Amino acid sequence: MKKDRSKLNRIENRIFMVLLRFSVILLLAIVIALLLYLVLRGLFKGANIKNGFNINLEFLTTLTNNGGKTGGILGIIINTFFLITLVVLIASPIGVASAVYLSIYAKEGRFREFVKSFIEVLSGIPSIIFGLFGMLLFVGVFNLGYSLISGVLTLVLMILPTIIVASENAITSVDKSLIEASIGLGATWSETTFKVVLKAARSGIISGIILALGRAMGETAALIYTVGSKTEIATSLTSSSRPLSMHIYLGINEGQSLDKAFALSLVLIVMVLIINSISKKLLKCGDKK
Amino acid sequence: MSLFEIKNLNVYYGAHHALKDVNMNIEANTITALIGPSGCGKSTFLRCLDRMNDLIPGVKVEGSVMFEGKDIYKDEDTLELRHRVGMVFQKANPFPMSIYDNVLYGVRLHYKLTKDEASRIVEESLKKASLWNEVKDRLKKSALGLSGGQQQRLCIARTLAVNPSVVLMDEPTSALDPISTRSIEDLMRELKKDYTIVIVTHNMAEAARISDRTAFFYIDERKRGFLVEEGATSEVFFSPKDKRTEDYIQGRFS
Amino acid sequence: MALLESTNIPSTLIKRGKSEKNDAASRLRMRESKEMVFKGIFLISSLLSVVVVILISAFIFKEGLPFFKSVSVPEFLFNTRWKPSSDNPSYGVLSFVLASAEVTLLSLIFALPISLLSAIYLSMYAKDRSANVIRSTVELLQGIPSVIYGILGIAIVVPVVRRLFGGNGYSLLSASIVLSIMIMPTIINVSESSIRAVGEDIKLGSIALGANDFQTITRVVLPSAFKGIMTSIILALGRAIGETTAVLLVFGNAPLFPKGLTSMGRTLTMNIVTDMSYAEGVHMNALFASSMLLFISILILNFIVVALTHKGRKR
Strands C90-91 and C82-83, how do they pair? Predict the structure, then answer.
């Protein structure tokens, strides 16, 4: 027999609306709680102001001693800086060049779909597998040892898809009439790329590169078996050295206090957040144009 | 008492005064056509009758719209209203489900049905919408496989399935070919016996063909829509009271 | 790509005479060769991704396949005994596979309701300002490195689990909770775009029939956005299966068969990371065989995503 559902419907709807709001609030609460704890414990031992500072200027500006057990983390930060810079320098040209080929030269068709599907596969491969590959290829076959350069090359491969996708988006958003104007004046496609397209897509491309950087900075699994673990400042490409993310991870394994880990994490997250917000601002700037 | 009694209806979209001082009655079991140039508020007026205007952000409705003696804007509950006053849109919008599920969608919101009841409702509604014969062998197939005219008739069947008193139609045939248009017009004449129909149309010939009453809307210098005149279709078309009506119908305006 | 042949010399330069024509022609040839060089460079760069994927597969398989000379596939996959250093070594990864599966599924169960509901709220209800706040929050979550998630897990989740459920806190439950937070951004982002993409016209059609929001969303919007939501779930699955550092820090890393929520365990990824530092010979090959397993699972998930997204386009 028919049964009128209107009362039930009303109750259902009410509950649903409450659940919706509750979920969002829960989500926000989780994030705020995590960040708050991170900041508090990073700054103060045991997340308690009474216990005194966990981080101080000395921590940030002196070099590491004693395998990182004492002393500041300046050396680690410098290593991180080396790592990031090299990764950018190597990954960006390759990534942007790939994006240029895919969006400017390649026609819609099988080849393009073929390459794009491989890029998608690459972006889904877990970091540990990149790490193993890096270990086999760079540390092993190329005999570079556990070193800065092995880590750099491994990370380059890992962030390549991010840069390619972001650059592709930026390039395809460029006003087609600009490209037509350039070709119409007799420029070659590569000339058009360098003189017109890359300039116009600049902010989107850089934004993507910086975003990829942020990811690379926090990476651990890909570096465990490639980048080495010395805490001193790297003196050459082949020196073993650890960036900040590895310092945190190895620190826990080496028995460092959790408070120290939080201090390090706070520094790392601040660096990542700064980088991500630069990336976002650049993207917005590009949109406004 | 008329089925709808609209008094001093004013509609604002934010700061824009879209519809000004409309006063009109709509009787049961009639077909009322709303005509007028683009932007004169016909659709706005139509959407007031089932409060679909509420969905537009910043909308404000003043005045009273009485349906069966009750002011629909005073009552919080719009669900029951939309159960009684159904709407067919300009572009057919069947859900991505089977024809069967499309027809029953509205009914299932309010009632639990047995299989027999469900099949009966589907058959009745599709017959009323003149679609039964064409789809009776593929009820479980996706509605998106139907032609434009069939989809629109499906939407009509879906609206009829909940047994409304009123069916509002917003330019239901403007996206259809002449043959589908004729079949839907024939449909409307049939439906008049059991339902009240209010239809917005740009097609003057259609309005003249099928409606009992016609309401002519126009737009003033301040871009506000208003009701010029409303009356029996034969009068509005052949002996209009207002010169603007006469001009419009004679085709001097778009 | 045909170049515009600019053999017409601008009138002001005609005075320069015949030599100018030759110079112009040689300049053109230089530009053409530059174009070919750059085109080649761009092409090779794009092929690099293809090469890398093939190389990764090749290397992993090269190190992993020899393992199956000594140990059969069923023995590897369906045996829970992982004792590579004993006198009678055994390389059964079933405990790890199950641990990975359990932690992944559990994290999905935790993450899905909040993520889906938040995605619905974001795409259908949030006003501009709150939408921006919510989106920035999700972006923030996405940017936190796994090692920091692990640290936060140790400091916040583990003690709570210890107090509420007993044991030492390093557990399946802790790992699932941490992992669920990590995968929420993936589900939210992709689901939100899919829900946004649902046509306004069918939403209106549902409302005009007297449906309330809950009914419109569950009966029309979500079914229409189903493919996209499924894609987001599969992407999240991939992320969860491949996660190493965060689970390593909170799962306890005991190579046991995970019996309950409070038991410690070790996922496939954790096993690879833990043992690789000292493994050699067959042991190392076993770890690469595990990597093969991981790699193949990810490829299958990728395949499913492609199948899902391409089916839509055919219509």
Answer: antiparallel
pLDDT tens digits in sequence order for chain A, 289 residues long: 456 777 888 899 999 999 999 999 999 999 999 999 999 888 887 767 766 677 676 677 766 665 566 677 888 888 899 999 999 999 999 999 999 999 998 887 888 989 999 999 999 999 999 999 999 999 889 988 898 999 999 999 999 999 999 999 999 988 887 887 887 777 788 888 888 888 889 888 999 999 899 989 999 999 999 988 887 777 788 888 889 999 999 989 888 888 888 989 999 999 999 998 888 888 877 666 5
| Nearest neighbour of B109 by CB, restricted to A1, A2, A9 | A9
Q: Domain boundaries in chain A?
A: 6-51, 58-288
Contact criterion met (CB < 8 Å) for B89 and C204: yes
CATH number assigned to the domain covering B4-249? 3.40.50.300
Nearest to C249 among A191, A252, A280 (CB): A252
CA distance C250 to C265: 10
DSSP type of residue B231: E
Mean pLDDT of chain B: 90
Residues of C in contact with A269 (CB under 8 A): 144-145, 148
Nearest to C124 by CA among C190, C198, C186: C198
B132 near C CB under 8 A? no
Identify which has the larger pLDDT, C221 or A254: C221
Distance CA C59, CA C53 (A): 10
* Distance to chain B for C198, nearest Cα, Å: 11
In this predicted structure, what is the pLDDT of residue B25? Answer: 95
Q: Which of residues 2-61 of A touch B (CB under 8 A)?
A: 2-6, 9
- Domain residue spans in chain B? 4-249
Rounded to whole angstroms, the Cα distance separating A123 from A221 reads 15
Q: What is the ipTM of this complex?
A: 0.91
Tell if the CB–CB gap between A9 and B112 is shorter than 8 Å: no
Question: Chain A interface, mutation test: which of C35, C42, C141, most A Cβ atoms within 10 Å?
Answer: C42
Q: Which CATH superfamily is domain C93-314 in?
A: MetI-like (1.10.3720.10)
Taking the domains of chain C in order of start, what are their residue ranges? 18-64, 93-314
- Sequential DSSP letters for B70-128: EETTT-S-HHHHHHHEEEE-SS----SSBHHHHHHHHHHHHB---HHHHHHHHHHHHHH
Superfamily assignment of A58-288 in CATH? MetI-like (1.10.3720.10)
Higher pLDDT, C23 or A200: A200
> Tokens 């099988």 identify what position?
A110
Cα dihedral A35, A37, A38, A42 sign: positive
Range scoring the smallest mean pLDDT among A216-225, A228-237, B60-69, B191-200: A228-237
3-state DSSP percent of chain C in helix, strand and coil, to 5: 75, 0, 25
Contact of B213 with chain C, judged by CB distance below 8 Å, is answered with no
Considering only the beta carbons, identify the residue of C204, C209, C212 that sits closest to B105: C209
